[in-house]
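[Meeting: bench + compute handoff]

Bench side (C.D.) handed over the final construct sequence. Compute side (W.E.) agreed to return the predicted structure before the next meeting so the bench team could plan truncations. Sequence as handed over:
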Amino acid sequence: MDLKQLRYFAAVAQQGSVSAAARQLFMSQPPLSTQIRQLEEELGCRLFNRDGRRFILTDAGKLLYERTQGLLGMADSMEKELRDFGEGACGTLRLGAVSSVCGLDLSEWLAAFWKDYPEVKVEISEQNTYQLLDQLRGHQLDLAIIRTPFLPDGLQCRILRQERMTAVGRRQAFERLLGRMPETLTIQQLDKLPLIIYRRWEPPLTERMREMGLAPAYFCICDDARTVVSLAKTGMGIGIVPDSSAHGLGEGCASAEIIDPKFQSAIVAAVCEGAYLSVVAKLFLEYLPQPEIPLAN
């Protein structure tokens, strides 16, 4: 088993068929099929179940694919590190960012960086925090701009900006539920409201409300802050999102900041502790906000 075989295997796993993977790899189908068969024989287990032309990962295949992502990421990282010695500030910045900073913030940071280093190429992975952490720890990214809360094990982090959480929804919904459209809200005022919330914010909000003897009334729990905003704009409930996700709501909609020091969010720049950090990644870090809280684990 070598890296070439693992790249072939990963391509088939991602594409779900040998023919599609062969096109991606710019090779013919028969030798790719042979490589997959030889890999299965070498490992002594079936990696795919065949359903016509579809290749579906077995449990063993899923385990190998998970490990393969890390190995290929490390191999690509090593190649990149070696190229950095020759390229200096002319390499590629592999950057991960959550959607809430991929608009104005990231554009401004990258524009300032590009003015000084126009030859640097940028690859941006826009995912949620947990997906970016997996890519970062798998050495597929140089650094990630993510959002708390998350476990910082094995990471060095620098807080770029603290944000309050915000309630969003139809102005009529606020007035119907609260009797008026407030400028700000307390945690107590969220009690019994039909809340729409991104899943990762449900535990900290539930815990905060329980500390006050309250029980949140969740109308909907989903997996994306953009979905929260979209649903709240229909008037079905009150969405809870970080402040940077609450802009541009449209006509008839409004937002109110939640004033509570224990229920906030932070935008964080994270790198893997002890891992090699490319020249361009080090340079880009200098263009990010420099608050009083330093890079630390």
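W.E. noted at the follow-up: The chain has ten helices and twelve strands. C.D. will use this when planning the next construct.
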